[in-house]
Design a protein that fits this description.
- One of its GO terms (molecular function) is uroporphyrinogen decarboxylase activity.
- Homodimer.
- By secondary structure, the protein is an alpha/beta fold.
- The protein has one domain: TIM Barrel.
- The protein has a seven-stranded parallel beta sheet with strand order 1-4-5-6-7-8-9. A two-stranded antiparallel sheet has the order 2-3.
- Helix 9 packs parallel to helix 10.
- The chain starts with 10 loop residues before the first helix and ends with a helix.
- The structure holds coproporphyrinogen III (CP3).
- Coproporphyrinogen III binds next to loops.
Length: 362
């Protein structure tokens, strides 16, 4: 493991441990993305996965929002995509402009086409390298978040072959081939464990698991299919923390839309922080999860199109919601999903300024 510059801003790490911070740390999902002109400029000359696979480019893009919002933003997230894991498992994934798998998993027989044993160092070493160079370049300014997709969300892409509104193919698998689905979900989870361990070894200081499609499942099926694979990931990491093979870092889970399952997730999934979407009020979420976990979120990303007054109003309202839920202890401010193209970067700056103003502990 390399020597890295000392961390100068540990707000996010403290909030993730459930501590009271002087104000809420803030970052946004997809903060290095198409709303930034400097991102679009790099994209003119480089394909999406080419950037992911080129550590210098991934580093540059990861740093773009950190440079633009110096002093306002409290975390960086490595530029990559959740779909690099299906690629590492032997699937072809294109981005044109959304994800497309030319050869998806149609039936369990197709599982045979996946790579038997995935060597993450060989397949995803480029991500580890990107993390190491980025962590050095950050010079301790803010912590660096590593991430992966949750097994259920990755499974849905691998079976559907791309985005979907109905989840018909992926959910049909759960009903028609429940055992094969569970086996595949755990197999994906095992790759995620190796991948996340590699990210921490490379310098990631926090990890986030994106279960973007958690809310597409009934609470019953979330508990049956997604939760065990999420537990497999957290327990694999906790084992590595305990035996000292990697430093212990906070684990964030973003189970988007699974609000009905929040108390079960808080009690049983094994994560330190739960990311919330905007469809639950902060005080209600706090009531459901108790004191066991920190919370992240949860403003509707669309409010960023509403102008400065609307942004200020929303931030104020959500800050009051967290305070009403028992205080801003253990709260990481974020959107309830990724920032979208077309947002004015100056409006995002205003969002950060409002969070600083309204989330202070006093
Ligand atoms: C479901 C999912 C994906 N990727 C991701 C998720 C989980 C989070 C979520 O629910 O949004 C995660 C992701 N994708 C990206 C990051 C980078 C880090 C960050 O800044 O947050 C992260 C953490 C970059 C990206 N990943 C993608 C882009 C835009 C592609 C481009 O540059 O053309 C970026 C910046 C492409 C992508 N990648 C994916 C989709 C559906 C798309 C196309 C739709 C879209 O454009 O939003 C899969």
């Amino acid at each position: 493991m390399s020597d890295f510059p000392p961390l100068k801003n540990d707000l996010l790490l403290r909030a993730a441990r459930g501590e009271q911070t002087e104000r809420a740390p803030v970052w946004v999902m997809r903060q290095a993305g198409r709303y930034l002109p400097e991102f679009r400029k790099v994209r003119e000359d480089h394909e999406f996965f080419e950037i992911c696979r080129t550590p210098e480019l991934a580093k540059e893009i990861t740093l773009q929002p950190i440079r633009r919002y110096t002093g306002l933003i409290d975390a960086s997230i490595i530029f990559s995509d959740i779909l690099v894991v299906p690629q590492a498992m032997g699937m072809e994934v294109l981005m044109n402009p959304g994800p497309h798998f030319p050869d998806p998993l149609n039936t369990p027989a197709d599982i045979g086409k996946l790579t038997k044993t995935v060597d993450v160092n060989k397949e995803l070493g480029y991500v580890f390298e990107a993390i190491t160079v980025t962590r050095k370049a950050l010079d301790g300014e803010v912590p660096l978040i590593g991430f992966c997709g949750a097994p259920w969300t990755l499974f849905a892409y691998m079976v559907e072959g791309g985005g979907t509104k109905t989840f018909q193919k992926s959910k049909t698998w759960l009903f028609q081939y429940p055992q094969e689905s569970k086996d595949l979900l755990l197999r994906i989870a095992d790759v995620c464990v190796d991948y996340l361990i590699g990210q921490v070894k490379a310098g990631a200081q926090v990890l986030q698991v994106f279960d973007s499609w958690a809310g597409e499942l009934s609470p019953h099926h979330f508990a049956e299919f997604s939760l065990p694979s999420l537990q497999r990931i957290s327990s694999g990491l906790r084992k590595a923390f305990a035996d000292g093979s990697i430093p212990s870092v906070p684990l964030i889970l973003f189970p988007k839309g699974a609000n009905e399952s929040l108390s079960d997730i808080a009690a049983n999934a094994g994560y330190d922080v739960l990311g919330l979407d905007w469809c639950i009020e902060p005080d209600h979420a706090r009531q459901l999860v108790g004191e066991k976990v920190a919370l992240q979120g949860n403003m509707d990303p669309v409010m960023l199109y509403g102008g400065k007054d609307a942004i200020e109003r929303e931030v104020k309202r959500v800050c009051e919601g967290f305070k009403k839920g028992g205080g801003t202890r253990g709260w990481i401010a974020n959107l309830g999903h990724g920032i979208t193209p077309g947002v004015d970067p100056e409006d995002l700056r205003w969002f950060f300024e409002c969070i600083h103003k309204y989330s202070s502990a006093s």
